[in-house]
Amino acid sequence: MRRAGLRTRVSAAFAVGALALSAGVTFVSYELISNTLFRERERAAVRATYFDAAAVNAGLGGSSPEVGELLQSLDIGADRYVLLQRGGQWYSRSAGPAASNAVPTALQEMAASGEAGAQRIRRDREAALVVAVPVQGDAVFYEIVSLAELERTLQLLALVLTAVAIMVSAGGAAVGWYVTRHALRPLAAVAEAASGIAEGDFDTRLDPDAEPDLARLTSSFNHMADELSRRLQRDRRFAADVSHELRSPLQTLAAAVSVLNRRRESLDERSAAAVGLIADEVARFQALVDDLLELARSDQPVHLEEADIGLLVARVLNSRNLPGDLLHTDPGTPVDWHVDRRRVEQALGNLLDNAVRYGGGPVAVRVGPGFLEVDDAGPGVPDEARATIFDRFVRGPSANARGGGDGTGLGLAIVAEHAAAHGGKASLGDRPGGGARFRIDLPMR
Amino acid sequence: MSAVLLIEDDDRIRLSLAMALEDEGYQTHAVPTAEEGLEMQRRQPADAVLVDLMLPGMDGFECIRQLRRTDDVPIIVVSARDDTHDIVAGLEAGADDYVVKPVAVKELAARLRALRRRGRSASATPAVTVLTFGDLEIRPEAGEVRLHGEPVAVTRTEFRLLCELAEHPGQVLSRQQLLSRVWEYEIGDERLVDVHVGRLRHKIEDSAGKPRHLVTVRGLGYKLQP
Questions:
Q1: Contact state of A255 with B20 under an 8 Å Cβ cutoff
Q2: What is the pLDDT of residues B67-112, one digit of tens each?
Q3: How far is B127 from chain A (nearest CA, A)?
Q4: pTM for the structure as a whole
Q5: Where do the domains of chain A lie?
Q6: For domain A214-296, which architecture applies?
């Protein structure tokens, strides 16, 4: 499983912390508020009950007390219910359902023993309080006070507090996300600079004053970039120097050999053969220097531009004196490709040269969406050679057998480098019916 | 037999190239410094100049600029330096083409022939055709360009490039088309075209930064319009 990102983790931690904190605060405050409210309500209920009980007590002291009327005369609200128990009989204000069931037995017993008391009960699935006050003549006055409204209030309070807790924890997550974005912003700058350097922009540096807390990172990053660009410059200068130092004597050789070559007829047989050998080797040396320098420069960024791929292939075929009808274009192939024209020309040219040299000549160049393929008429590439065929200084076996390898052994390596420079790749397959099929994939954009 | 001036400080290269060029049928004057080259060209003008860039004393860039002040002779840079900066600078100084050492003598001869071919076609029979693009007049047969009626001095390659575009008025020619028609390159360096277009604009436009006649068509190439 992939590990969650730093931002996600920090935000989650913030959210959990905020949730724990707000849940704690919510719980404590709910408990406090509900206890206080219940206590207040109970006290009020008990006080009211005593008041009513005093009235009932006075009423009962009369000559012929009519209990029902006595209860009717009490001034009670809708949420209170009064009962009187006298001599095992229950009296109430109305002939409604026997509310006496609601009075717990324990409370009855306690009241019967002459002690006042109160107990919380549930009646009709609503919270209520029963207060019992003994009055004269072994009677007990009960009052049932509905706590439904209080309970609803507390429910609403719980709902509000829960919502607040959730919001606080979401707020915590948001703060975490925001804070980490700020904390990680300097790192994003580092990442951007690093990818700029990877893409070849060696002037990219971080501003050392931008983030004092990251001064060490900034300075070591800049140091690394300096070092890298210095090394790269040294390498390039070296390649340029080598190039210059090799090219000058080669120019002399090439010119001098062409003078000799022109006079081969007037030379004796052995000298003419020797001149022929030198001329061939000079030509190969020339190609080798060009290829080596090409490889030395192949890490440089590609120079992308629009190029008509059909025309490009036609030009390369023409430059190799190959017939233009080798080109087959798959339907749906875009006309203009966004490529480094010079590199694609060279890669295709190298594949064609390769086919001529080792594969009995190219039989088709196929162009499709994002790829170029060169088929040859040779025997195909043996399995043991496939793994290394795109490596440097690897030559085809047919050339070895002939012993006259005039290639540099770098052609396919250059093809692979050019394909990779585009973000694509070079690969080798089999042509149906025998022969090798080299393929260059170039990402379409 | 046409004459070629070779300015090259490396003795061995100078000697061998001179011999090889003579084998190809060119009468070659080979000198080791830019100063001697300029003097030689003044005294005995050659039909084409081959010049190295790294020379003792006056360098190749300055040598090309001085030659260009008075001469529209085809100039080819023959240098061991192949970085973009040098190539563009050499062309901007006024060279017509740029080859990187080691160059095969046959290839060099082919380049010289291509440059001279267009030199000849430019100076043929007297003027008949006049191609007009607003205040710009081109007489292909006379080898003449006039802006606001005043003659403009262009090199042969610039003239050939201008004629190629003028013969297809309003039509976009790609860099590759121009490379093959003007320089006879099958696969060549498009910077040749770009630098020559830049040089031409300085001569035939009132403001080279805002060309009216020789305009770039993004992604396609160039066209000439009134």
A1: yes
A2: 998 888 999 999 988 778 888 999 999 999 999 888 888 889 999 9
A3: 36
A4: 0.63
A5: 6-153, 214-296, 305-441
A6: Orthogonal Bundle (1.10)
Structure tokens, A358: 């080792």
Predicted confidence band of residue B121 (pLDDT cuts 50, 70, 90) = very low
3-state secondary structure of A338: strand
Complex-level ipTM: 0.84
Give me the CATH code for the A305-441 domain, please.
3.30.565.10
- Is B82 within 8 Å of A243 when comparing Cβ atoms? yes
pLDDT digits (tens, 9 = 90+) for A147-157: 888 888 889 99
Q: How confident is the model at residue A96 (pLDDT cuts 50, 70, 90)?
A: low
CB count, 10 Å around CB of A51? Answer: 14
Q: Mind giving me the DSSP string for B172-207?
A: -B-HHHHIIIII--SS--THHHHHHHHHHHHHH-S-
Give the model's confidence band at A401: pLDDT under 50 very low, under 70 low, under 90 confident, else very high.
very low
Structure tokens at A41: 């309500």
Contact between chains at A311 and B101 (C-beta distance less than 8 A): no
d(CA A59, CA A48): 17
The C-alpha atoms of residue A25 and residue A246 are separated, in whole angstroms, by: 81
For residue B129, CA distances in Å to A260, B73, B143, B162, B225 come to 48, 24, 11, 14, 17
